[in-house]
Design brief:
There is one protein chain. The protein has 122 residues and is α/β, with parallel strands linked by helices. It has three helices and four strands; from the N terminus they run H-E-H-E-E-H-E. The chain has a four-stranded mixed beta sheet, with helices on one face. Helix 1 crosses helix 2 (27-39). The radius of gyration is 18 Å and the shape is elongated. The two termini are 22 Å apart.
Amino acid sequence: YPEGGEKAVEELMSMPAPPTAVICFTDYVAFGAYSKLHELGYAPGQDVALIGCDGISEGARSYVKLSTINVQKRLIGETAAKFLQKRLEDPGAARQEIYTSPLPLFRSSSGHTKIKHCESKE
């Protein structure tokens, strides 16, 4: 939840040597971190790099665009549905594994607006 990001950033930024970057495990936590950074007088993407992880579309709509790691949830869901359908049709089918590559989406919250974006169709 965003409140977790707010609390974590408040603690981090009160350290004697506050960090220059904050990496959050979800975009929603990063939204909270962003809010608290702004409240404390820091400019995300300028004073402190900020990145989330999920790739939710709201990150592209914020004032300072949220850098994130797109874990390709749609691809994972579609593939899981296909595997499930196959197992329902053939319960004895061999177990399958897939691996996806997360896609970094560098936006202004990390201060790297000139890095090539890796956009997905999600």
